Amino acid sequence: MTFNSFEFLIFYPIVLTAFFLLPHKFRWIMLLAASYIFYMWFSAPLFFLILFTTVVSWLCSVIIERTDDMKKKRLCLILTLITSLGVLVFFKYYNFLVGSVMSLGSLFGAMPDLTIRNLILPVGISFYTFQTLSYAIDVYRGDIKTEPHFGYYALFVSFFPQLVAGPIERPDNLLPQLHAEHRWDNADALAGAKRMLAGFFKKIVVADLLASHVNAVYNAPETATAVGVVVASCMFAVQIYCDFSGYTDIAIGCARIMGIHLMQNFDRPYQARSIKEFWSRWHISLSTWFRDYLYIPLGGSRCSSFKRWRNVMIVFLVSGLWHGAAWTFVIWGFLHGSYQIIGGLTLPLRKKLTDKLKIDRDSPGFGIYQRIVTFVLVTFAWIFFRANSAGDLMILLRTLFTGWNVPLSEAFSAMGLTLTGALTSIFSVIAMVMLDRLVTHEEKPLPDGRFISDRVTAMGRGGVYIFAILAAWMLLLAGDGASSFIYFQF
């Protein structure tokens, strides 16, 4: 049951109606049941995994808080880490590890007696695992008190709007809101509905529209051209943003209508002027999770330069693995880690150069230059992320540097991109940028103290929303059905 499916259009209104009709003391039961039904719609046989992880992490956290014995506390924390990460590693990384060992063995003429298993990756396992880990670690550190009610904790782990693709919530934000008694609020309902609309527009109108052209290149790299790789990679940069932030918008909107505020996960990442800033705007819930539970415990930036950059690289390598069990994701993480390290090491030199050339680093022109460079670097890394295999990646990179002797018409034809299709894509992206800025940032004050919505007339806002509804509806009817969100595979 995806957000952009017919089933969800029936499921959500039923849950929403029941939520506000039921007395407060029974709402958690209904929400927990709805969340488990939502999850089992994807993979009922693997439901026991989320239940097992929930039970173990809750019991261990209760013991951690109640005992004064530090050995027991550490033992319970280790048990939580082993069980949660153990399940994740087995189902997500077993075949990757076995395949890597077998490939390494073949290089030395040895064939280890290992077997590739036909394992099904549980939907959302990377997301709910990180939520259980953050809860147990926060309890161990003494940052939060344990949740005494198992039902509310189970709901925290499985709350359906953000269950399968985030945002990765923190217990101190979500748990108190699950306990609170929420009444229908017109402002929350309107804000939530607009946020959901923005998400559906991003997914159905933009992401799915660009997907066919991206797939034409990445699913058949041997027929790709250099122009095709460049255009498809730029399209994928927009596609993955609209796909993932679209899911997040729908999730935030679903919860907002119920009066629950989930954390923001995106802040116009392609407006970033550096790779470091990009990661403060992209998948914020994951970036801050790695900061708090990996980077800072490793020493953060309060250590020698070598250790600081080592910590940065470790975080990005782990981030790459978190996204997918393939070497292409590891290289993607390595690239972003390298970007940050090179950027940090060369910053003093670049500042001296701009000073010598009398370039104002705060000028709009220099800001545009920085955004273009950042987008190019991020988009180049997306090639590694999107490639279906290491073999496909090598073909794409070779084509990128050698396949420029093909006419533009031929290159676009190979992508299935006509003039009409190109104009439609461009128009949809422009509309998305306007809608994204209007809906997801209308509560953010501008430098002059006013809000974005103050600068747009009611008629203008209404026109944007009506266009979004009609465009999404037409494309949904014309399409081949609901396509899955990209981050479901992680």
Please characterize this protein's 3D structure.
The protein is an all-alpha fold and 490 residues long. Helices cover 71% and strands 0% of the residues. Helix 8 (186-218) packs antiparallel against helix 9 and helix 9 (226-257) packs across helix 15. It is globular. The mean pLDDT is 87.
For this entry, give a set of tags.
0% strand; mainly alpha; single chain; 2 domains; 71% helix
Short description:
71% of the residues lie in helices and 0% in strands. It is an all-alpha fold and 490 residues long. Helix 2 (24-43) crosses helix 6 (150-158), helix 11 (284-295) packs across helix 12 and helix 17 (419-440) crosses helix 18 (458-478).
Number of domains: 2
According to DSSP, the number of beta strands is 0
Strand content: under 5%
Our measurement of the CA-to-CA distance between the termini, rounded to an integer number of angstroms, reads: 17 Å
List the helices and strands and how they pair.
Blueprint: H1 6-21, H2 24-43, H3 47-66, H4 70-107, H5 125-141, H6 150-158, H7 171-179, H8 186-218, H9 226-257, H10 275-281, H11 284-295, H12 305-323, H13 327-356, H14 364-386, H15 390-402, H16 408-414, H17 419-440, H18 458-478
Helix pairs in contact: 1-2, 2-6, 3-4, 3-5, 3-6, 4-5, 6-7, 8-9, 8-17, 8-18, 9-14, 9-15, 11-12, 12-13, 13-14, 17-18
